[in-house]
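Weekly modeling sync, notes
Attendees: S.R. (lead), two postdocs, one rotation student

Agenda item 3: backlog of single-chain predictions. S.R. asked that every request posted to the team notebook include the full sequence so nobody has to chase files. The rotation student volunteered to paste the first one in as an example of the format we agreed on. Action items at the bottom.

Example entry:
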Amino acid sequence: MQMLSRQRGLSLIELMIGILLSSLLLLGVLRIFDSNRDTMRMQLAYSRVQESGRFAMDFLTREIRMADFWGCAPDKGSIQSHLDTSDTPDYKAAVHGEIGGNGVRGRDNVNGVSEGGMPVRPNTDILTLSGAENACGGAGRMVDGASLHVSPTCGGIQPGQVVLISNCKAGELMTITKVQEGGASDKKTLEYEGGRDGRKDKDEGWIKNLAPPLALQEDYGTDSTILRPYSRTFFVADSPVTRTPSLFMSEDGRPAQELVPGIEDMQVRYGRDSSANGVVDTWQDADNISAPQMEEVTVIRVQLLVASDGSVGVSEQNIDGTQYTDGRLRKLYTATAKIRNRGM
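Predicted structure, as returned to the notebook:
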């Protein structure tokens, strides 16, 4: 009895109170952990939305600034085409028609439209920009225009490629049928055989040059540039991998490639300088501008709606008059870019 009286311990009530206090403390720790996790998830989503929005805007505004560049040829009439227009069944027929103009096109709030093999997201806009870029990729140049010699470092030109050679007096549009390397001069020679395109397989889609003789307007020397015409179409579609909307680009009619994920919507407006005084007179959607009026467009405004990959617990968002309640974080980006090759 004496030993039992010396024993000390916790009563049932004391044990229950201890468990309750421990549970409250653990609940507080879990709440802090859950709050920190939600905050981190929101910050990651916000960072991802910012990254996608800024990259997409930087990419599009850079493309807009360089649109409608065809070398320093004075005007469209100074560019001589050696392409056989009856042999242009694909995208290059459109590019051929755009040389020196029509470098900007668009479609407004499309439905049931596909680009580059991808169905365009309904009620979004399509922007098409055309121009010409350095065919050597900045790693070479023209050295002798009379024989179409380029420096040996020019590695971007392949047989079957349409090129535009221009200086500040004139320009020539043609298909390169053969690239001959080496020789005593260590230069690359670009051949443009008339009447034949040099292709072995008619399905390759090369454009045939006109029948000979193909006389150039100028002896294009070191003051000339050799350019590659392009046509790039930007649009929003659902990614076949993630099933989420993304910004896509289809270049020269080829299959579309995904550029930036998380782009839900793209809206484009065009600023026209109809009086040619260097000031935008009116802003219009693409469907309200005729082809001749589109050549008066000097400024383009792009609006992108960027969304997070999944739900991050956003209860409700009102963006541009639309209510969103799916928990995803969204942000609207707007940028205005001047077409450097147009206007004053």
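Discussion: group reviewed the output briefly. Residues 235 and 286 are 14 Å apart (CA to CA).
Action items: rotation student to repeat for the remaining queue; S.R. to check formatting next week.
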